[in-house]
């Protein structure tokens, strides 16, 4: 759970003083090449933290002794940017070998992805260590589904020690990035709490059958970390069923309205919630390991 971790922003201050600059430089290159990679790092960190804590488990390839998380239902053909982490890790190992965990690199990359797309920055508590295993079944069970209703979304976050309000502000991560047609087809063809023009527009690139992997932006400005995700919800232009659940006559409506018109409140609450999410069950001290290659155990 959250809150008990002994992470510290200055964890690598003497052991790897350049870590922040190394991650930031590599992330700037990646986001300049493909802005979506900023979004991809944010999502990958979320999918790491929700599955047995922020321990780099999501980065492990499948092995003979365990099936990893990359091919779990929410991740397969969906997570991108593992090569960005590889690039960062290679540079970090060159600068300070066997010192910085993959879990910490991912937390920094997520923060920098947000900042480089115009969002807030924050000091990332560090000192996580890397898992020696991964669990595909835990990834299938613990990651929320885009077909979930509000009570299920709240429950999925509560199971990780996060509040409903934190769930709502963290869903604001959908102000950047893309989703596949298969994840929102039912919403744009069958749901009624959707803006008609928006549904028509989305149907044009997400046919009733086929095109499962066609992409659509999660808000009207997918390369910009802004409040458009929340104003979209107020206008019934949420792309995923789970998105629109946050503004559908329920407990989160007022907060969605607040974020839709108050960028300062949104980015402040988002940064604080990211630190809380980043504190989910980290391995610290002598637990776990500092992986040399983020894809494989030492
Ligand atoms: C509340 C429950 C959530 C659900 C059900 C959910 C579901 C999804 C789905 C289905 C996609 C599209 C994946 C695809 O089609 O391949 C997606 C994308 C994304 N999600 Fe979430 N998500 C949730 C919360 C979050 C949180 C907490 C964050 C981060 C703080 C986040 C960040 C992202 C980002 C950045 C993308 C775009 C990734 C890209 O473009 O590569 N999501 N999410
Ligand atoms: Ca994990
Ligand atoms: Ca946006």
TrEMBL record:
The coiled-coil segments of this chain are none
Q: Which residues make up the binding site for substrate?
A: 144
Q: Which SUPFAM superfamilies match?
A: Heme-dependent peroxidases
Which parts of the sequence bind Ca(2+) 2? 175, 219, 226
Q: Name one GO cellular component term.
A: extracellular region
Output the superkingdom of the source species.
Answer: Eukaryota
Per the UniProt entry, the disulfide pairs are 16-96, 49-54, 102-294, 181-206
What EC class does the entry list?
A: oxidoreductase
Q: Where is the Plant heme peroxidase family profile domain?
A: 6-298
Q: Where found, per UniProt?
A: Secreted
What does the UniProt keyword field contain? Calcium, Disulfide bond, Glycoprotein, Heme, Hydrogen peroxide, Iron, Metal-binding, Oxidoreductase, Peroxidase, Secreted, Signal
* Record: residues binding heme b: 174
Q: What is this protein called?
A: Peroxidase
Organism, per UniProt? Linum trigynum
């Amino acid at each position: 759970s959250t809150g008990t971790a002994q992470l510290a922003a200055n964890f690598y201050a003497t052991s790897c003083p350049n870590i922040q600059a190394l991650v930031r430089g590599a992330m700037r290159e990646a986001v300049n090449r493909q802005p979506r990679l900023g979004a991809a790092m944010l999502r990958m960190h979320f999918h790491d933290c929700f599955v047995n804590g922020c321990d780099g488990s999501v980065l492990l390839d499948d092995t003979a002794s365990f099936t990893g998380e990359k091919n779990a239902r929410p991740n397969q053909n969906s997570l991108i940017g593992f090569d960005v982490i590889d690039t960062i890790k290679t540079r970090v190992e060159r600068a300070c070998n066997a010192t910085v965990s993959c879990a910490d690199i991912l937390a920094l990359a997520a923060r920098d992805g947000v900042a480089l797309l115009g969002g807030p920055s924050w000091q990332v508590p560090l000192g996580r260590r890397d898992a020696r295993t991964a669990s595909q079944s835990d990834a299938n069970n613990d990651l929320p589904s885009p077909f979930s209703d509000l009570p299920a979304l709240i429950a999925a976050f509560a199971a990780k020690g996060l509040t409903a309000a934190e769930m709502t502000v963290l869903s604001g991560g959908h102000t950047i990035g893309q989703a596949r047609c298969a994840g929102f087809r039912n919403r744009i063809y069958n749901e009624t709490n959707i803006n008609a023009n928006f549904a028509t527009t989305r149907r044009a690139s997400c046919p009733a059958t086929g095109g499962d992997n066609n992409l659509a932006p999660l808000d009207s400005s997918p390369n910009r970390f802004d409040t458009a995700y929340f104003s979209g919800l107020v206008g019934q232009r949420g792309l995923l069923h789970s998105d629109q659940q946050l503004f559908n006559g329920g407990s989160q409506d007022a907060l969605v309205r607040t974020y839709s018109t108050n960028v300062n409140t949104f980015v402040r609450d988002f940064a604080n919630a990211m630190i809380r999410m980043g504190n989910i069950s980290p391995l610290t001290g002598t637990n776990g390991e500092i992986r040399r290659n983020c894809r494989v155990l030492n």
